[in-house]
Automatic annotation (TrEMBL), chain B:
This is Septum site-determining protein MinD. SUPFAM superfamilies: P-loop containing nucleoside triphosphate hydrolases. The lineage of its organism: Bacteria, Pseudomonadati, Pseudomonadota, Gammaproteobacteria, Pseudomonadales. NCBIfam families: minD_bact. It comes from Azotobacter vinelandii (strain DJ / ATCC BAA-1303). The gene is minD. One of its GO terms (molecular function) is ATP hydrolysis activity.
């Protein structure tokens, strides 16, 4: 091992800290979904169907997000319309 | 007032049954009348870990279905006066446990026991759901490893939303983290998540850290709960955890690398 390798070795992240980072991200994501009401996926599906009656869109062009803001929740619906 | 305590984890093989046997035995050792109930219907194993497998006549499902009384099904521990086991059934019928039936048995157990330890099966199916449904407190057994930590977090979500306490709007289940199979040596090398890492991610009270230890397999081989092996590090760590469960503050041990002495290194001492 030369001197250059020695410094590079020290910079390398330990596998435990990679595990921690990955866990923090996935756990935070799953906790967010957990607090969402059970009807959200169905609501999203039906909304897409309704919009499709009028505009031709893909599933991923409709985003339904429920945001919790203390004592009230905001349901945000974001529809990307295709180019005319 | 009787307390129902569930030992759960989500993931399998992390040490739920070992922990249930150890905590149940530890509580009985300290004079509390305790019963350990196996909820793993179809895959009964608590009886083996507790060393009473040859004395199972009636089981949990027999009691629920009215084929036996609770008195007939409870197995009295040979070593300790205050300790009883209720074995799981080996039936393959997935619907053998019903919420109503389990509730009835829990109510009856509450009348004569101080502590009811529910040994949950792995997963989030019916058995696991019913094991935690009636609980007052939960011990979440976790290994310092990504899939176990993630599953534990999932269980914490279920404990907070799908239990009787949650449904009735009562005070939530008191949650405890028990970290098992911990290797301080590997944590030091950066190969394993440390106690602080897991505590930070799950954000619940730490009940104890059980070091990876040969004594756990040795104990299960013999059907003696590892807490009775007072010489072993795992046994001592379980004793500390039981003390904390009873409200005593004791410092956490076995978190640092065990340094071998000169002679031990020379002759290679065994743990």
């Amino acid at each position: 091992m030369n001197l250059f390798d020695f410094f590079r070795e020290r910079k390398k992240q330990s596998s435990a800290s990679i595990a921690k980072e990955r866990l923090q991200i996935i756990v935070a994501h799953e906790r967010g979904q957990r607090s969402a009401p059970d009807y959200l996926p169905d609501l999203q599906k039906e909304l897409i169907e309704v919009i499709r009656k009028y505009v031709n869109i893909d599933n991923d062009q409709v985003q339904v997000v429920l945001e919790d803001q203390g004592n009230c929740s905001i349901l945000e619906l974001n529809v990307t319309l295709p180019d005319r | 007032m009787a307390k129902i305590l569930v030992v759960t984890s989500g993931k399998g093989g992390v040490g739920k049954t070992t922990t249930s046997a150890a905590i149940g035995t530890g509580l009985a050792l300290r004079g509390h009348k305790t019963v350990v109930v196996d909820f793993d219907v179809g895959l009964r194993n608590l009886d083996l870990i507790m060393g009473c497998e040859r004395r199972v006549v009636y089981d949990f499902v027999n009691v629920i279905q009215g084929d036996a009384t609770l008195g007939q099904a409870l197995i009295k521990d040979k070593r300790l006066e205050n300790l009883y086991v209720l074995a799981a059934s080996q039936t393959r019928d997935k619907d053998a446990l019903s919420a109503e039936g389990v509730g009835r048995v829990m109510d009856e157990l509450r009348e004569s026991f101080e502590y009811i330890i529910c040994d949950s099966p792995a997963g989030i199916e019916k058995g696991a759901h019913l094991a935690m449904y009636f609980a007052d407190e939960a011990v979440v057994v976790t290994n310092p490893e990504v899939s176990s930590v993630r599953d534990s977090d999932r269980m914490l979500g279920l404990l907070a939303s799908k239990s009787r306490r949650a449904e009735n709007g009562e005070e939530p289940i008191k949650e405890h983290l028990l970290l098992t199979r911990y290797s301080p040596d590997r944590v030091n090398k950066g190969e394993m998540l440390g106690v602080e890492d897991v505590e930070e991610i799950l954000a619940i009270r730490l009940l104890g850290v059980i070091p990876e230890s040969q004594s756990v397999l040795k104990a299960s081989n013999q059907g003696i709960p590892v807490i009775l092996d007072e010489q072993s590090d795992a046994g001592q760590a379980y004793s500390d955890a039981v003390e904390r469960l009873l409200g005593k503050e004791t410092p956490h041990r076995f978190l640092d690398v065990h340094k071998k002495g000169f002679l031990q290194r020379l002759f290679g001492g065994r743990e």
